[in-house]
Design goal:
This protein is mostly helical. It folds into two domains: about 80 residues, no CATH class; about 50 residues. Helices cover about 70% and strands about 0% of the residues. The chain is built from eight helices and no strands. The protein is elongated and about 60 Å long. The two termini are about 25 Å apart.
Length: about 150
């Protein structure tokens, strides 16, 4: 029995709904980031890991934007014209679509800006931890470290 693509796996839904060229560019940027830190000391790598913990992922960016749009359009619906409630409803529908399928109208733009998924950020953090020596084994390249991190 063939598995349906209607509800993709939660952790991969944004990646699967993103243009492969954009996914490749985001991965290449991660590799460039790792190359910057491949010869750094433990403290510098640790500082980069701390910075990654503050990086906003696609979910956070979408949730903030949707919340702001819903608040503003609801306010305008009460204070000016009920037509604004259509925007409130549309944002709700698009957020439901994103929750279920991993896509909404703003997502392609957010991904084009280079906003990563939580898994993509976590992969860079894990690769950095591997480069720092937190895990057994050594990596000959940052791509090896990233590949190991993506498999976790």
């Amino acid at each position: 029995m063939k598995r349906s693509n209607i509800l993709p796996p939660t952790a991969k839904r944004v990646f699967l709904k993103t243009d492969p060229l954009i996914n490749a560019e985001i991965r290449n940027q991660t590799i460039r980031n790792l190359n910057i830190f491949k010869n750094c000391n433990e403290a510098e790598i640790t500082e980069r890991i701390r910075a990654l913990e503050l990086e906003w992922d696609t979910e956070r960016v979408l949730e903030v934007n949707a919340s702001l749009l819903m608040l503003v359009s609801s306010y305008l619906g009460v204070k000016t014209s009920r037509i604004w409630f259509l925007l409130t409803g549309a944002v709700g529908v698009f957020m439901l679509q994103h929750a279920l399928q991993g896509w909404c109208p703003l997502l392609p733009l957010i991904r084009k800006w280079g906003v990563r998924t939580a898994d993509e950020i976590q992969a860079e953090k894990s690769a950095l931890k591997g480069m720092r020596g937190d895990f057994k084994g050594e990596f000959s390249t940052v791509v090896d470290a990233l590949n190991m991190a993506e498999k976790q």
